[in-house]
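PROTEIN DESIGN WORKSHEET
SECTION A - STRUCTURE
LENGTH: 399
C-ALPHA CELLS:
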C-alpha cells in the first residue's frame, strides 16, 4: 500500500483525465498478438464483471489507496511523466475515488479494463489474464511501476474484490480466500449466471505464468495442456464470451461468437516466451547452494520427481500426451482439491523462481521454503539434518 498521500488531487488530475481519449483500452496493435491479449483482452467478460457483478459501480467509489490494499497495481508506463512526478512528490490524492476512474481511463490499472464516458463515468469493467498473473516492480511507489508479466500477484485479494459486488450474497466464502488465492472449482459462470460446482470452497494459490516452455501440463492437477486451462479460466472463471467443455468435470459452456478459443494460440506463444526471473544477486549463500544442489540430486531425493531441467516428471510417462501424476497420499497433499479436478491426482510442480512467490504447494500450506523441505523430510523419512535442510533451501532459492 502506498505511503504517500496529499490533501487533494492537484494538477495531475487534469493530466490524468484529459491526456488520452476516454475509454481507450486497447493496445496499438489492435489485440492481434499474445502480449496484447494477455494484458488487454477481456474476451468479452464484461458480461460478468459489468452486467452481473456491477463492478463499474463499485470501482467508481474505491480510492486508489483501497485498490492498492487489495493488490490491484498500476502500470507506470501508462502514466504521463508529469503524473509520475506528481505521485513521487505526494501531489496525487490516493484517497480520492475520482483518481481511480482516471487511472482506468488511462488503462493503467494492471489487468482491469474500464471504459470511461465523456462525463467521467465508469461505464464498463472487464478483466484480463494480467490481473492475476502480472505484478509491477514498485519503481514509482509500492504497487506502482513497470509491469512484470507472468509473475503471480500474491498480493491480489480476488475474493475480497468479488465480495464487494451487490450481486454476491455469500460474501464470507469469497472473503475467506485471502490474498493470492482463487478457487477455480467453486463455481462456473455460463454467460448469464453462476453454476455451483463444489462446496465448501477450497482455494489454491495463484500460480506463475512464466517458465512454461516444454512443461505442457500447467494445472496443479495436470488436467490438460496450458491452453486447456487458459480456456477453462477464460470462459468459466473470468466470464469470457466463449465456449469450453470437459465432460470429466461435468462442465459445458457454449457461447457464440467464441471470443476466447481463437486467441488461445497467440496467448500460448506469449506465455511460453515469458522467462523465469533470475534470483537477485546476493539473495542466497552460494557455497550453501552448491552443497544444496548435491543434496537435491542425492540423498534428499528431490530430483526423483523434480527432474532437471524442467524440475517436474509430468512428461515421464510412455506417452507425452498423457501426464505422469501422483496420488494425494503419495505427495502428502490435500485429497479434496484433487478430487474436484479431472485427474484427481497431482502433477509435480516445476520449480520456477521459488524465491519470488511464497507460499508454496497448491494451497499455500508451506509458508516458506524450509516448511516445504520439512514436509518432504517428514513424509519420506529422509532424516535430513538442520544444516542439510538449510543448504537445500539455499539451492532452492537459486531456481
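SECTION B - SEQUENCE
RESIDUE ASSIGNMENT:
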Amino acid at each position: 500500500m502506498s505511503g504517500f498521500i496529499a490533501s487533494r488531487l492537484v494538477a495531475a488530475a487534469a493530466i490524468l483525465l484529459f491526456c488520452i481519449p476516454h475509454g481507450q483500452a486497447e493496445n496499438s496493435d489492435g489485440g492481434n498478438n499474445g502480449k496484447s491479449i494477455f494484458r488487454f483482452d477481456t474476451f468479452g467478460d464484461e458480461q460478468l464483471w459489468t452486467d452481473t457483478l456491477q463492478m463499474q459501480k463499485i470501482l467508481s467509489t474505491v480510492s486508489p489507496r483501497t485498490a492498492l490494499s487489495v493488490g490491484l497495481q498500476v502500470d507506470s508506463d501508462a502514466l504521463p511523466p508529469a503524473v509520475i512526478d506528481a505521485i513521487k512528490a505526494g501531489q496525487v490524492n490516493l484517497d480520492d475515488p475520482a483518481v481511480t476512474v482516471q487511472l482506468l481511463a488511462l488503462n493503467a490499472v494492471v489487468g482491469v479494463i474500464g471504459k470511461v464516458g465523456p462525463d467521467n463515468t465508469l461505464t464498463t469493467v472487464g478483466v484480463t489474464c494480467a490481473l492475476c498473473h502480472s505484478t509491477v516492480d514498485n519503481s514509482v511507489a509500492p504497487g506502482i511501476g513497470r509491469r512484470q508479466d507472468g509473475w503471480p500477484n500474491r498480493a491480489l485479494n480476488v475474493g475480497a474484490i468479488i465480495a464487494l459486488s451487490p450481486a454476491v450474497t455469500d460474501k464470507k466464502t469469497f472473503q475467506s480466500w485471502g490474498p493470492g488465492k482463487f478457487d477455480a472449482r467453486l463455481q462456473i459462470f455460463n454467460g448469464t449466471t453462476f453454476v455451483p460446482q463444489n462446496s465448501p470452497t477450497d482455494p489454491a494459490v495463484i500460480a506463475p505464468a512464466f517458465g512454461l516452455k516444454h512443461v505442457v501440463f500447467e494445472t496443479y492437477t495436470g488436467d490438460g495442456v496450458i491452453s486447456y486451462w487458459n480456456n477453462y479460466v477464460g470462459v468459466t472463471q473470468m466470464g469470457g464470451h466463449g465456449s469450453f467443455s470437459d465432460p470429466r468435470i461435468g462442465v459445458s459452456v457454449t457461447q457464440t461468437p467464441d471470443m476466447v478459443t481463437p486467441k488461445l494460440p497467440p496467448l500460448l506463444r506469449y506465455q511460453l516466451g515469458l522467462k523465469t526471473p533470475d534470483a537477485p544477486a546476493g539473495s542466497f549463500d552460494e557455497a550453501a547452494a552448491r552443497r544444496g544442489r548435491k543434496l537435491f540430486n542425492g540423498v534428499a531425493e528431490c530430483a526423483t520427481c523434480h527432474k532437471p531441467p524442467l524440475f517436474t516428471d509430468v512428461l515421464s510417462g510412455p506417452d507425452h500426451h498423457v501426464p505422469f501424476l501422483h496420488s494425494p497420499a503419495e505427495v502428502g497433499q490435500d485429497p479434496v482439491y484433487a478430487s474436484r479436478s479431472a485427474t484427481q491426482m497431482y502433477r509435480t510442480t516445476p520449480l520456477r523462481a521459488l524465491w519470488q512467490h511464497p507460499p508454496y504447494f497448491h494451497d499455500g500450506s508451506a509458508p516458506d521454503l524450509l516448511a516445504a523441505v520439512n514436509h518432504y523430510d517428514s513424509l519420506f523419512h529422509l532424516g535430513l539434518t538442520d544444516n542439510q535442510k538449510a543448504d537445500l533451501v539455499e539451492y532452492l532459492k537459486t531456481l
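SECTION C - NOTES
The first helix runs from residue 11 to 18.
Residues 286-313+348-396 form a domain with the Cytochrome Bc1 Complex; Chain D, domain 2 fold (CATH 1.10.760.10).
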